[in-house]
Design a protein that fits this description.
The chain is about 60% helix and about 0% strand. By secondary structure, the chain is mainly α. The protein binds fe (ii) ion.
Length: about 190
Amino acid sequence: MDRQRAIEILNKHLTTENLVKHSYAVEAVMKALAERIAPDEVEEWSITGLLHDLDADLVDYRENPELHGPKTVEILKEEEFGNERMYHAILAHNQETGTPITNEFDRCLYAADPITGFITAIALVYPDKKLSSVKVKSITKRMKELRFAAGANREAMRSIEKLDIPFPEFAKLSLEAMQQIADVLGL
Ligand SMILES: [Fe+2]
């Protein structure tokens, strides 16, 4: 799978700046997760992270939540890019599609998606708005404050524990992955 081609597809279909940044953040977290639990699949997992929200400018999530995912798969097939495993993970990351989470790959995308927005929200609380100010402790603490970044799905993030990765470890891995591309994320 060719990352350069994936970036071309991303830029062609997704233009909202924050969504593009979110795509890079999920790519970084998926890469770190794959390096830990599926070292032979790093490229597949990373690129899936990069492309998982490809349809986000096209689908009105509030109107038609069940189309978020299927539309991405449609675009990828038109672009002749990706494979069935990737499509399945993209469908399953949005539980509104009714696609079950059936493997580690699906599970990781499901958990990686909300944690990037959650960590971003935590960074923005600091005066310098930098990821370098965020600590793992602040992430675990904010998890319990349900009114903070209420849209970040706690159940999805915590479900990483089904893979025997304790949540604080997932938080650390995700934070460090995002810190490595802080310039791209503008944080
Ligand atoms: Fe996403």
